[in-house]
Amino acid sequence: MVVLLVLLAGCSGLNGGAPSTQPTETTSPDPTTTSSPSNATPSNTVNYTELSDTEQRAFDTAQQRQVGFAPDAIRESPYVNRTYFPTDAQDVFQNHEYVLKNGTYYRLTWHVGPIVAQHIIEVSEREQAPPENATVVSLGNFTPDVREAVEKAIENGRYETTFGKWNALPDELDGVDYIRDGEQYYELSIGYGDYWGEEVRAEPVQ
Questions:
Q1: Is the pTM of this model over 0.90?
Q2: What is each CA distance from 153 to 4, 92, 132, 159, in whole angstroms?
Q3: For the chain, which residues make up each domain, given as ranges?
């Protein structure tokens, strides 16, 4: 609000002197809120107070760094050393371009997050001996960590590693076609269930 100040001087005695005036002075407004972006609308802006507690925590964190969202299998993995928020807290940010908090607009931007690796080991019994040119490794030759994973795959036909357990496929499994356990051969297949999510960042609109 512009404040207009007009200062009037009094008459100089009783001699009929005309009153004089001082120049008009103005003061600049003191803004208390950030101007809204030109493309901000009620449909693409969500108020901070409308967010759930989890969504508010995610937004507060996004003001400091990029924030990712992931399913429970990743969030609960002991091998993932990164904080993720539940995937159901992601929708409100994907559906809006801005968050309005305490009179300030924050623009939401999305970035590719890091890959969280998962390996899928599948085995199937083979009645006949493998081809001569196939790569065959005895189960007992694997390191304990890899041998345990392969044993679980043999027991169930399939084993999915915990997210983040192996950042990359162990070298001892790379290129292996068959596994021998005693007189039994198993054909080996390796698949991937990697998670590669987006991350959000919130920055104030200048």
A1: no
A2: 82, 39, 24, 5
A3: 46-116+197-204, 119-195
